[in-house]
Amino acid sequence: KEAVNYSLEHLTERKSVLTIDELKNECLKNFCGNIDYKKLDEAISKNNEIVFLNDNKITTIQTQKEEIRAVEFVNRTKEKYKSINENFVAFSDEKSIYKETVKGHDYKEQRQAVKEILTSEDQTVIFRGVAGSGKTTTLAELEKGICNSGTKSFYFAPSTTAVNELKKDVSPNAKTVANLITRYEKGLFDN
After folding, report:
1. What are the two backbone dihedrals, phi and then psi, of residue 74, each rounded to the nearest 5 degrees?
2. How far apart are CA 44 and CA 41, in angstroms?
3. 29, 112, 127, 132: least surrounded by Cβ within 10 Å?
4. What residues form DSSP beta bridges with 37?
5. Who contacts 4 (Cβ-Cβ below 8 Å, separation ≥6)?
6. Residue 121 in contact with residue 82, Cβ under 8 Å?
7. Could you give the count of Cα atoms lying within 13 Å of 86 in the half-sphere of its Cβ?
8. What is residue 58's predicted lDDT score, i.e. its pLDDT?
């Protein structure tokens, strides 16, 4: 039971849905030599915190509650705020125009993303993309539009590697999510 609870807590920090096999592997990894595999199945099936989904997938009651709160927050704060910068034209500097007209760079999707984010009246906007799709380039341009409006911006990433990329290309003040949480817990959120 201890192995299941510990592993659930660890895994659901990063994922809201996981497979039973992922949970078992995590239990075996963290409690190597101390797990009776037959009892592990029983501990999983009898755990009151686990919600069994389809296709061998599971989540937890706590994770569902957190996701419901997040969705409610997003819905409650839709179209409630003034947009950040409706007048900013992304990728309109000389360097970007040169890259687009001479070098063949296509900023169409990034330009659209920046426009949608800067003109949104929602408190929460999700911006995502596959590796190499231009997220960092878009964030750098977004930062220009935010600064142009006089609004203060903050950038956080889950890892030091990701923070270093943000510092290099977007904002020298980027921090880890762990830093954000620590600062919040210490009451230093506005500093």
Report:
1. -60, -50
2. 5
3. 132
4. none
5. 23, 27, 40, 43, 44, 47, 50
6. yes
7. 5
8. 96
Give whole-number Cα distances, 124 to 70, 74, 153, in Å. Answer: 10, 6, 14
102 phi and psi angles, rounded to 5 deg: -100, -45
Give the pLDDT band (50/70/90) at residue 88.
very high
Residue 190 has pLDDT above 70, yes or no: no
Split at pLDDT 50, 70, 90, the class of 181 is confident
Rounded to whole angstroms, the Cα distance separating 51 from 57 reads 9
28's tokens: 């075996």
Q: Which long-range contacts (CB under 8 A, 24 or more apart) does 133-138 make?
A: 133/109, 134/107, 134/109, 134/110, 136/165, 136/166, 136/169, 136/170, 137/110, 137/169, 138/110, 138/113, 138/114
Cβ-contact 82, 42 below 8 angstroms: no
Instruction: List, in sequence order, every beta strand (DSSP E) within the chain.
Output: 18-19, 50-52, 57-60, 156-157, 175-176
Stated pTM of the model: 0.74
